[in-house]
Amino acid sequence: FxxxxxxxxxxxxxxxxxxxxxESAVATRQPSAGLGDLDDTFAVVLRMPGDKxxxxxxxxxxxxxxxxxxxxxKGSIHMSPAYGxxxxxxxxxxxxxxxxxxxxxxxxQFGGEMRYFSDCILNDRDPEPDAEEGLSDLRVIEGIxxxxxxGKRVELPPFTRTRRIDPASQxxxxxxxxxxxxxxxxxxxxx
Length: 191
Prior knowledge:
By secondary structure, the protein is an alpha+beta fold. The protein has helices at residues 5-15, 109-122, 131-150, 167-170; strands at residues 21-28, 41-48, 52-59, 68-71, 75-79, 89-95, 98-104, 154-155. The protein contains 4 helices and 8 strands; from the N terminus they run αβββββββααβα. The strands form 2 sheets. The protein has a 4-stranded antiparallel sheet with strand order 3-2-1-8. It has a 4-stranded antiparallel sheet with strand order 4-5-6-7, with no helix packed on it. The longest helix has 20 residues, at 131-150.
């Protein structure tokens, strides 16, 4: 079921809404990917409220592409890298004829997550993402599986979030972590 929770989350977050249907979903298997009888590449089109579409492709076999493109009537945003955590994030924004570029320095994303969750525990606060966020993802993933099995559009059951992500409450700023100096130790990966 690891069929693109990051793009699904990004789509739901950017639209501020839940998908209403899986328009299409296909998958392929490349024997050279070494995943046995598991699909390694997924291409999905979701219908959002207001007849808006969102599409994504995720692959565990293809060359590494880590980007997100949002295209609208008045402009577009291109983020690359979009989902990775090994480097800073950059994005290009085009509104009409005006273009801008913004870069954000590398940060310790996992440390920020740990600090946020620790703060939630210490202050008896429910974290976001929570179980409701997970249910929303699974609702879409199950629709994707059904669309792949049937080859048909799948209407998703209605789902209303009681709350949405509040980026201000989750913002954590930590410096990037550098690899520690090894003292007479071999890498655990053998490299």
